[in-house]
């Protein structure tokens, strides 16, 4: 291990498919060690994972970090949002966690919105109109479909809460992640007793919300991880809020993240409340807000189209007239939980490469359509889009975002921004700094800027037209004929 200038901290990203750990020099931001281990997600009607796999993956990732992890003075967990983790009285999972991309709770989401005042009331109450991704809808689904599991539940946690709790032995969460549950009121920054009563969830089962800059606890003796006893544990946060920390975002800077899901977001000093439900009014991990729009289908969906065509993911070809909406898992933005992929405009001379480009266009169209709603009215609409996530380094993704946005695009060189953001949060505990200021000191957003090109309004209009005309098909539930 190279010599570190300052204390070491650990940042963790527990995502849908793997857990990554970085050991970072709190003084310079240098990554001195890293590790990664996978976990599995069920296929079929639901999307579930065993939380114990997350813990095993964290242990393996930290083991790969070697002695550096043992020297860390603080640790923080960034994790996939919305997942419902139910624990019994012994702290063991009652059942596999229901993940963010499990859309079986779409009927419960619709019913909850109607029963508690409609979309505008929900937006004003919690900052968001809950869709099937939100944890409150998953709890309602569980109560309806697996009442025995609900009766056995002694604690309800989010994915990052579960790992933080195994580190500290205490039940904690943070404002960034809890703002995506649907049972936390963004106006009062407290659990919403009316919502909890309506879905039959005892607030005593929920974790304590740790404030920004506060310590969640210390690593307890029985954790089994390579930390010194007494190592500080930060509050942690959801993955998008952690990535915002990792970029050191200032208000108004737009981010487009290309991963399993696609997201667009920006830090705002104003509390969001979008009654259309397109923008989720999340809190950030610092005390501001993180209005965000999310799509379910992004890099995996486009890669699946490439695989079906037998093409490399970069083998795109230009060509007008074909539209592909890659809604392979249903969709959240637009809100079409029962949708499947849709292809329109196929001709004899259409090539596989043009079909693949159409899949990229369809995925990016959904994200850019939400961007204007995410940004405050006074945001600089000509500022570069920060392009992050697994797809950000792909040429086809970069060129598609440039062509359909008409904006310059900046690609940060730093990798693993969720884990870096968690590390910055851990470093802030030690130095007393704002974690975003820590990340700016580390210069995490540094990277090349790709110049703006003329926006392809023709393609944007064509996709919007197909989406509008196909609405009855896309909204149809599977059991209808």
TrEMBL record:
Residues annotated as domain Carbohydrate kinase FGGY C-terminal: 257-427
Keywords (A to Z) from UniProt: ATP-binding, Carbohydrate metabolism, Kinase, Nucleotide-binding, Transferase, Xylose metabolism
The enzyme's E.C. designation: 2.7.1.17
InterPro entries noted in UniProt: ATPase_NBD, Carb_kinase_FGGY, Carb_kinase_FGGY_CS, FGGY_C, FGGY_Carb_Kinase, FGGY_N, Xylulokinase
Carbohydrate kinase FGGY N-terminal domain mapped to chain residues: 9-246
Role summary: Catalyzes the phosphorylation of D-xylulose to D-xylulose 5-phosphate.
Enzyme class: transferase
Gene3D superfamilies per the UniProt record, alphabetical: 3.30.420.40
GO MF annotation list: D-xylulokinase activity
Site feature: Important for activity: 13
UniProt keyword Cell membrane present: no
Positions of substrate binding: 81-82
Protein name per UniProt: Xylulose kinase
Pfam families, per database record: FGGY_C, FGGY_N
CDD domains: ASKHA_NBD_FGGY_BaXK-like
